[in-house]
Amino acid sequence: MRxxxxxxxxxxxxxxxxxxxxxxxxxxxxxHGGTCDSHDWAAQIGPFTDRYRVIAPDLRGHxxxxxxxxxxxxxDYVRDLAALIEALGVGPVIAVGHSLGGLVxxxxxxxxxxxxxxxxxxxxxxxxETAFAADVAMAFETADPVGVSAGLLSAMEGRGTEGLPxxxxxxxxxxxxMPAVVxxxxxxxxxxxxxxxxxxxxxxxxxxxxxxxVLTVSAADSLMAKxxxxxxxxxxxxxxxxxxxxxDGVGHWLFQERAEEFTGLAIKWIEDLPS
Length: 275
What we know:
Layout: E1 5-11, E2 14-21, E3 27-31, H1 42-49, E4 53-57, H2 74-88, E5 93-98, H3 100-111, E6 116-122, H4 130-139, H5 145-154, H6 165-176, H7 180-193, H8 202-207, E7 214-219, H9 220-226, H10 230-235, E8 243-247, H11 254-257, H12 259-271
Helix pairs in contact: 1-12, 2-3, 4-7, 5-6
C-alpha cells in the first residue's frame, strides 16, 4: 500500500496543502466548497482510499493552504489543481467536487479535458438565475463578508442534520475563521466574475463542453431554489454514462448528512465507468 503523505506544493506562487493516500487503478481528487477545507471529505477518505489513490487538497486561501497574492475565482482554483495534477503525474483523475468544488471540477473538465476522466458534482454551484446571482454578489459588497458567509452556509443545512447537531456549528465556525478578503472574493468569483459558467442560460452551453461522464448528486431543495430539476442536469451532461440524482430531505452537505449512502453511490458509479 502507498504510505500516507501530507505535503505542500507551491503552484502559481501559492503553497497548496494536500494529502495523498491509498493506491489503485484510479486517482480520485476531492475538491471542497467555498470557505471549507478538505476535512469535509473525512467520511469518504477511508472508503475511497481502500480502492483508489486519493488526493485531497485545500484550495488557495482555505484550510492550511496559503493566501494567494491575486484572486480567488473558480478559474484560479482550476489553474492550481491542473498544476497539482501535472506535478504529481496522476491524471486523468476522477474529480469529486462539492458546491464551489463541483463548479471547479466541471471547469477543470472543460479547460483541461486530458486531466479529468470523470466528474462527480455534489450540489454544485451552477444553474442559478442571473438575478439570484446578482443578489448574492451584492450581499458580499459589505464590510462583514465573513458574517454574511457564516449565516448563508449555516442556513443551507438540511433536515438530515437533526441527528448531527454539531454539523451546523462546524460549518459556521469554519466560515468565521476565513480571511474577509478571501471570503468576499470567493463568492464574488462565483456570482459576479464567472457567471458564464454559473448562470442560466450561458452555463448550459459551458457545461455541455464537458465530454467526460458526470454524476450529479443534488439536494432536491437546492434544485427547487434554483428553479431547475434533474432533467436540467441530464440535458447538460452530454456523455451517455452521465447520471443525475436528487435527494429529498437533505441540505447542501448531503454527502455528510448521508455519508454511507453517498459513498456507496459514488464508488459504484466510478467502478462501472466505461473504459
